[in-house]
Amino acid sequence: MVRKLLKKPLFGAAKSSSQSPPVETDPDRESVVTKVDTAPLALDVTVPVPLMGPTPTAADLVAMANTAVTDIQNLNNPYLQPLEVFHSIVTAIEDVHPYAQTALGILTAASQLIITQANLYNATPALLQKLGFVYKLLLEEDMMKNINRMRDTLAKIARVVSAAAQFIMNYTEMKSFWRRLGKDITSETQSAVDGYINTLDDLMQQYRDCEIRDIQVNIPRVLEDVNLEGMAYAAGAGFNITKKCLDGTRTEILQRIIHWATDLDVNAPRILWLRGQSGRGKSAIAHTVASWIKDAGGFGSCFCFARDRQAERREQKIFATIARDLADRDLAFRRALVDVVTRNYDLKATSDVMQQWQHFILGPLSKVDGLMVGNVVVVIDALDESGPETSRRHILSLLSSTEAAHLPANMRILLTSRPLPDIERALGARSHVKVTSLDNVSAESMEHDIRLYVSKELGHLPEIEDNEIQVMVHKSDGLFEWARLACDFVKPNRPGRTVRERFHEVAFPPSGGGGTLLDVMYRTILEDAIPNDKATLARFHSVMQQIMSAFEPLRMDALNKMRAHFPYEEDRFDMVVILEFMSPLLGGIADRTSLVRPLHTSFYDFLTDPERSGIYFVGASDMHSLTFASLQILCEGLQFNICGLESSYLSNSEVLDLPEKIDKNISPHLSYSCRFWAQHLHKTTFDSALVTWVKALVQSEKVLFWLEVLSLLDALGGATDALASTAVWLLDQIGCEDVLAIVQDGIKFIQNFGSVISCSAPHLYISALPFSPLNTALSRLMMPKFTGLVVVSGGGLTEWPVIQLALQGHTATVCVVAMSPDGKRIASGSNDKTVRIWDAESGGQIGGPLQGHAGGVQSVGFSPDGKKIVSGSHDKTVRIWDAEKGVQIGEPLQGHAAWIWSVGFSPDGKRVVSGSDDNTVRIWDVERGVQVGGPLQGHDGWVQSVRFSPDGKRIVSGSNDKTLRIWDAERGVQIGKPLQGHSGWVQSVGFSPDGKRIVSGSHDKTVRIWNAERGVQLGGPYQGHTNWVQSVGFSPDGKRIISGSWDETVRIWDAERGVQISGPFQGQTGGVQSVEFSPDGKRIVTGSNDNTVRIWDVESCVQIGGPLQGHTDQVKSAGFSPNAKMIVSGSWDKTVRIWDAGNGVQIGGPLQGHTSRVQSVGFSPDGKRIISASHDRTVRIWNAESGVQIGDPLQGHTGWILSVGFSPDGKMIVSGSCDKSVRIWDAESGMQIGEPLHGHAGWVWSVGFSPDGKRIISGSDDMTVRIWDVKSGVQIGDPLQGHAGWVQSVRFSAAGNRIFSGSSDETVRVWDAESFRQIGIPIQGHTGDIYSVTISPDGTKIALASAASAVRVLDAQNFGILLPVHNLKNVPVPSPAVIQPYPVCFSSVPSHALSDVLQLLDGLQEDDSVRDEPVRLHPDGWIRGPRGRLLLWIPPILWRRLYSIWTIAMIPGDHCIELDLSQIVHGNKWHQCFQPVA
Description:
Elements: H1 30-38, H2 58-68, H3 81-90, H4 98-116, H5 125-138, H6 141-144, H7 151-169, H8 171-180, H9 185-209, H10 251-262, E1 271-275, H11 282-295, E2 299-304, H12 318-329, H13 331-343, H14 353-367, E3 376-381, H15 389-399, H16 402-405, E4 411-417, H17 421-427, E5 433-437, H18 443-458, H19 466-476, H20 480-490, H21 499-507, H22 517-529, H23 534-549, H24 556-563, H25 576-579, E6 586-587, E7 597-598, H26 602-607, H27 610-613, H28 623-637, H29 658-665, H30 668-682, H31 688-698, H32 702-712, H33 719-730, H34 737-759, H35 763-768, H36 777-782, E8 791-794, E9 803-808, E10 814-819, E11 825-830, E12 834-839, E13 845-851, E14 857-862, E15 868-873, E16 877-882, E17 887-888, E18 893-894, E19 900-905, E20 911-916, E21 920-925, E22 930-931, E23 936-937, E24 943-948, E25 954-959, E26 963-968, E27 974-980, E28 986-991, E29 997-1002, E30 1007-1011, E31 1029-1034, E32 1040-1045, E33 1049-1054, E34 1060-1066, E35 1072-1077, E36 1083-1088, E37 1092-1097, E38 1115-1120, E39 1126-1131, E40 1135-1140, E41 1146-1152, E42 1158-1163, E43 1169-1174, E44 1178-1183, ...
Helix pairs in contact: 3-4, 3-5, 4-7, 4-10, 5-9, 7-9, 12-13, 12-14, 13-14, 15-17, 18-19, 18-20, 19-20, 20-22, 28-30, 28-31, 30-33, 33-34
């Protein structure tokens, strides 16, 4: 017996009084009550009382209280005293039902949380008082003895108390939320508190009266309006209350699990693995625990796998789903999760469980530690049903990791599965995993539980008495699934036989049945449900083949809709005639709203084994009928804008009612057909009738409607595989050439436009389709069917672009890339010190970055089996990583004395080779992590590249000593003499697949081939690159060579003839550091200084025509002539060129003389002279008419000269240099005037005079602009700051009142030359560094030069038309002010401006934020309007050449992409782009 604290005060008395309820004392217990009331136990110093064992007496409890009294004298609030003693009292109670145990555990956790927040007493005094009364009353003897009987009510009380504790904990944040909504805080607080108090009053009265009444628990809920839509979620993966254990069964195991789940001991194991064979009841236990935790107000989630839902790939959504469940239950966790996805939006849809675990689970939990009630209990049921081992590999890796062992102390994960080998290996021996086996539960316990179950199911039948129940319990042999099937069979739900007869069939089956107990049960039920006649059995086989062949379960109505489209009349029957009496075996029969699926997975195992199932055997799936039905459903059901989306400005995730639209317009059988038709087709033998339906789908606009549905269903990820398998099915079939061409184009279409289609379904039509290459079969077929689309009026694509994916994530130069042996993954190493792994198809990052290196990662490589990755770094170490788990294997391999430039595995994967700045090559043993032998020495310079030969017997190395060397990999000695011929550093080397040739790339800009046996060069050097060759390699067949260069191009060469056969592939905005063929030779992966990894299509990369005429390298500077008729440009190709500003045609030949890159050019004020500055540290003056140099070069700078300019009178020249100085020169004599101007902390990239000649402006890579006084040579005012990158060009306006600056941050900024304040917003339009900004003399035009090897001319006067009328920050804006329309044009033809621009501004009010949002191209390729409205998406290959809104002309003229938007339909008119034919 437990002590009695109080007699029976009416709980409701507390409603109107702030005093404690009246107390009737018992003389025998008065001292006990007094001591407990005045000396509550301190929970942190009390020894927990064991759950089982003798119950302490009242005197014992008082003694325990006395031991702690001195430590808690500072607790002055009397209402909190019962909370202090609650834990020690309830843990002393024995024989507690596990459900009540759950509620008590949560009440204990809530009490501790409330005590820690006692400082909030003044904020919510009434609520804290009520909670104190609740705990005090629960501790009454009469209340305690009813714990088991009133466990349902107790759970409701726990749920309300838990919610109240969370309310108290989050009260400060809630007040802030109410304040933002403009609500009255006092009123909202009172309303919430009243809700808790009134609900508790009703529940406590019900508990006291021992009445079971249906009291609705309405808990006030305040969740901030934060959007988690678009975040991956596995619908239907939660717990199912119909699967709970029968009350009174599994008590012992449930008690142990609940004790573990609610135990607050920080040393408790974080994971409990409940394992057992099929039919043992694992899932019933899992669903029971999850249900109890939720009902009692616990914090948790339940995620269930199912064999028949494997096609949904639930494993890819597991931790995202769990995180969303937790966010729905706790405000603090929700806030932390929203913070994560807000900072990195791409995480919302990630299928990478590693990132989900790190960012969605561990991250938010670390931020809410101590802010939650009790433990976080996550149930993961039936992990063994996820699919093949690969489907759960990452999940097991995480659960068995060190991170899982050190999960927060309040984290509990209950995992159930069969003891499969991979799960056993991962979890069986982990110290942080508690393993419990249902196979080891005592026979007595199992018999007890099954007896209760059978009694409940059949005990009410007069024919079934104790003897019959005992027989069934004995026959079950501990299998709950057998007991369930047997009970369903015996029940009187079929005519023809009595209950007694049915019992005898189950209990005493006819001899000769054979097989396991379950097999006998299955045969018994099927013999009863399916008559043994040919017609019925045929229908049974047909129905079960359909159900079992489906890639995911469907409802009965959807299955029948599919069957109605089967090709043969005899198969088009209502499935009910077969399934009606199979409810003991299949779900979804009695309840037609549920999915038709086996109630236990062993049933499918039975049917597919002919020895076990006999006449009921269901053989290999006949996919023909399902394929036929799926294709017919698509052709009949697909339609344009199927969900009636109103606006093209929104992404799918922004359409608030999209789920409702999908439910209404996309039927389950259409959804299924869209997602799985190609998988069925792939498993079907070729059939001409099916070809007809494939053509009907693919050779019409229906194929686009199919992609639209996949976009809406967030299932586009399977579209490429669907078409690829269709192409294989059609390959080499006569008469299928045309449809095969469309399918192949469809694959390219998805690869190039998949990201935009997934983002927004309308942009499948208005963005993706119009940018499809004109010469493709897909474009020729589809474009005539659509109107109102953008027209690419200049420079559009004619063939599929080379570049398919740009993988972004690294924060510094990508130094190296490597493909896995199967071509499905890419590894990249970067100067951001990380290695990253990417999915080669989707471009998504797999897992988090591999971190550990303390310096830039210069080399990576996969092991031959793809399971390991090796990396070499500037931190002088080699590291080996587990490619699946993303963790380092062993310790770093140390020995090199300098930076490591290159690493690689041997062909057998047992050794690694590395090359370093210490001039050595070293070999390492992968397993032991030690160096093999001594270093290979001989090079006189850094070893830049190393590779094993295909047979593993030789190593080739390349060095900056300009040689290659071949080494014996076994003996560690050099073979033959060095291979000489390069005139620059040898940057990259590699063997041909047959090991007979070696390829090398060098800083001498050439690629060379060598005979690996004789060590001699084969043929001449391969020439074409205009800068260092950084990376080379052979194709898998050895017939081609690939090279990547700092000239930002990739080229492919014929390995036999030595001629370029493809490329240059352009698209990188930085030097190409690494290139590699895919294993099938069809793709190329590159890594670049622009921080990206890119994937290229080799097959579509044949160069068409000659190169564009003009500069052959980056244009670094451009300037207008005084009459604005000519433009001068300077390039890294060492030349100066003059152009006609009107038509972009070059005038005369190039001006040659500089011996290095030309960095800056300009006209003299009279237009007769041109000035240029170069990396050769000279300034040169040229005659603008004749193109000849005037006089000698101006010399004096000690570093590259980066910028020059004439004074307005033409008498002085100013120059800026990487020596950080500005210098002034006499233009006639060429002599320096005065001392250099110092002040910049970095290279001076640009200089210029003011129009009056009195000031000089300079821009530097210290990201500042500075103004100088010409006469005194001192700086005027403070630096102009705001750019986020190097300031590479600066100019005064013609009036001298403004300053223009261009930067590597890809913007132009305008400054007030007097106040030095920035005017308006940055001008954007380029996608690369802006090297030069020049203003025309009349101030109407701006010329920009960038890394795009082109000059862009902008409208200087009207750049403000992109903004609302009030475009200056310091001009007051009327409020509210309606935004005025402005032209949106991406073409040199004004009439090509966007039609109906008012739509883009509809509903917006002008304010500062809208004024900062001009319609422009964003870094992700979207042209967006104000408020992020989606106007159009541009393919990556066109970004750099897109005609900007500010642009007037491009030089050369054929270098620009222009868009005609005059006929485009957009916004709420987008659907007018397609008009179906009646």
